[in-house]
Design brief:
Order of helices and strands: EHEHEEHHHE
Structural class: alpha+beta
Shape: globular
Helix content: 25-40%
Strand content: 15-25%
Number of strands: 5
Strand order of the largest sheet: 2-1-5-4-3
Radius of gyration: 15 Å
């Protein structure tokens, strides 16, 4: 299962420096404040959480991300990771402003991409973790990033 670690950092340059220095290893914990999120990709599964927070249907534009590390691999079809994407500020702010986290967790736990039967208590722990991370990022005026490894 692909690994997705979400973290906050001052900017994309700081992320590139940390990843280059660390040989591409996840910077979560060692360098940046973040959380592990196995199986929670930004554009689909995290976007479904954003949809639940906003109480709107899922759409592909709820979480936009852009590759920030390594530079140039978008042109290399052989490259299979790891890589880091920066998430759009609006997704961070929606998560940071989330209310009624038990409702969000109940809805999100049922998404098909998570198997449709995630324990609601486990989902709530994760929802609270990502919301807290988004709040810390917003408070520090930092973007959210996602480290991805297949």
């Amino acid at each position: 299962m692909p690994l997705f670690d979400y973290f906050r950092a001052p900017d994309a340059d700081a992320v590139r420096q940390a990843l280059d220095a660390g040989g591409g290893a996840t910077p979560v914990g060692a360098v940046f404040d973040g959380i592990e999120a196995k199986g929670v990709d930004p554009s689909v599964v995290l976007a479904m959480m954003v949809a639940a927070v906003r109480q709107v249907p899922w759409s592909a534009d709820l979480v936009d991300d852009r590759l920030v590390w390594p530079v140039g691999v978008e042109q290399d079809p052989e490259y299979d990771g790891p890589w880091v994407s920066e998430l759009n500020t609006s997704a961070r702010d929606v998560l940071a402003g989330a209310g009624d986290l038990p409702r969000v967790a109940r809805e999100w736990a049922q998404v098909e991409e998570l198997g449709g039967n995630v324990d609601v208590a486990d989902a709530q722990v994760f929802v609270e973790s990502i919301v807290d991370l988004a709040r810390r990022a917003r408070e520090a005026d930092e973007p959210l990033f996602c480290w991805i490894s297949l």
